[in-house]
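Suppose you are handed a protein chain with no further information: no name, no annotation, nothing but its sequence. What can you learn? This example shows the usual starting point.
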Amino acid sequence: MDIDIEQLRSLMTAIEEHGINELEIRNGDDRIRLSRGPVAVAAPMMAAAPLAGAAPAVAAAPSAAEEPSGDFITSPFVGTFYSSPSPTSEAFVKEGDHIEVGQPLCIVEAMKLMNEIESEVSGKIVKIIAENGKPVEFGDPLFQVELS
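A reasonable first move is to predict its three-dimensional structure. Written in structure tokens, the prediction is:
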């Protein structure tokens, strides 16, 4: 596979900008694999193609002035937040709902791939912070949760 250093730099910039942790390109027997940081298990997605990415994390509040205190489920990558699997479907979760580990919470669309985000914690949804159809960045709080 013929690739020059500028193409490689461009690919590395793209995976950084889009929050992708790993990218593999195959052409016949040739293969290029780029990864950044430790490889993590991908969040399940609705599209057929796999995308390696960090799983959503529960983090402390960024600051008391910005958000109420508590625990948050954050975006594992840059994309567009969707609260339901389709525009005509009900939201995966509502404020006040009890959630379990592995339960689908939302979709974050990244690079035309619909990535279903599952809960890694059990608890109650205190507040839905992200707005349906709006962009989210890596680490942005999506949900405020009360852990159980």
